[in-house]
Write a structure and sequence with these properties.
The chain contains 4 helices and 3 strands.
């Protein structure tokens, strides 16, 4: 039964990555299924690794583009991930919408 919950949590539309991982962590703590708990832990470690790689700029030529989540138009261009993230958070509050950060080389 918990396995189905994990699938629903991961595929739930309009949920942030951070929200999904938080909910999965809570489920991992509550479940009695040892295998599922291990699998959730592996997924969380993998997602953290992917995020670190996304944030890492190895050659100094990376461009982070913030896109509006509804219209998908570019609303900001940044050289540093942290700057793009700050802009995106403010954009979400100001425009009351979602946005996406994409990494371009």
């Amino acid at each position: 039964m918990d396995f189905r919950q994990v699938t629903l949590i991961w595929n739930k539309p309009n949920t942030t990555r951070q929200g999904r991982l938080f909910t999965l962590t809570e489920l991992a703590i509550k479940t009695d299924d040892v295998v599922l708990r291990f699998q959730i832990g592996e997924r969380i470690v993998y997602e953290e690794k992917v995020m670190k790689q996304f944030e890492y700029d190895s050659c100094g030529e990376t461009l982070y583009v913030v896109f509006d989540g509804e219209d998908h138009y570019a609303c900001g261009y940044f050289r540093k991930y942290e700057t793009a993230l700050t802009y995106a958070k403010n954009y979400i509050i100001k425009e009351k919408t979602r946005c996406v950060i994409e990494k371009n080389y």
